[in-house]
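#onboarding

Welcome to the new folks! Below is a worked example of what a typical request in this channel looks like: someone posts a single protein sequence, and someone else replies with the predicted structure as tokens. Don't worry about understanding the tokens yet, we'll cover that in week two.

Example request:
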Amino acid sequence: METDLNSQDRKDLDKFIKFFALKTVQVIVQARLGEKIC
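Example response:
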């Protein structure tokens, strides 16, 4: 079984991590400001 991620998988994973990080930051900022940003 191949343990190394191919470039496509790595790209998708990278995109997902960046998206998840951005969402997490937005949630934290919203919680601190006490307002919803859609």
